[in-house]
Amino acid sequence: MAKSAKKAARKPAKKAAKKAVKKTPKKVAKKAVKQSGKPAPLSGKKFLIIYHAPMDAMAQTVNASPEEMAEGMAQWRAWAERVGRKMVDLGAPLVNGKKLNSRGSTTPSTKEVSGYSVLNAEDWEDVMRLLEGHPHISGWHPDATIEVHETMLIPGM
């Protein structure tokens, strides 16, 4: 009987943790806009931040306890709040990647891309400062990495 009571008590906690995870990016973005009164300015450059992690790290996240999920999301919220208006898109976790080719066939991606964000920064020095202490590379998994790409403006688009 004690086991079933414990299990029943965990269900609402898991549901609340999942709900918090889903709402967090929207809340952070809305808060940044609310604080400034307008979206992040378009001055500077945009940088695509690509998160890499091995599949076992993603499985570790899926099997995390509600407390562990809440702790991880608190780190992401703190980072997003520090970045503030320079956050163009907090992004999302990514799964089930596919590689497409010119012949129309697809194969599963082997790149271990686990998520993305988009930041607005003046230059490489600024984007590197924004990524200091990022939760993805702050001890979550020893093989987790971040890849940064500067976007190019396309004339007339």
**Number of H- or I-type helical stretches:** 4
**How many strand segments?**
6
CATH architecture verdict: 2-Layer Sandwich
What structural class results from the helix and strand content? alpha+beta
Choose one word for the global shape.
flat
CATH topology: Alpha-Beta Plaits
CA gyration radius, whole angstroms:
18 Å
When the domains are counted, the total is: 1
Average residue pLDDT: 81
What proportion strand?
15-25%
Strand order of the largest sheet: 2-5-1-6
What would your notes on this structure say?
With 157 residues, the protein is an alpha+beta fold. The chain has one domain (2-150): Alpha-Beta Plaits (2-Layer Sandwich), CATH 3.30.70. It is 43% helix and 23% strand. The protein has 4 helices and 6 strands; from the N terminus they run H-E-H-H-E-E-E-E-H-E. It has helices at 2-36, 55-62, 66-83, 124-130, and strands spanning 45-52, 87-93, 98-100, 106-108, 113-121, 145-150. The strands form 2 sheets. The protein has a 4-stranded antiparallel sheet with strand order 2-5-1-6. Strands 3-4 form a two-stranded antiparallel ribbon. The protein starts with a helix and ends in a 7-residue tail after the last strand.
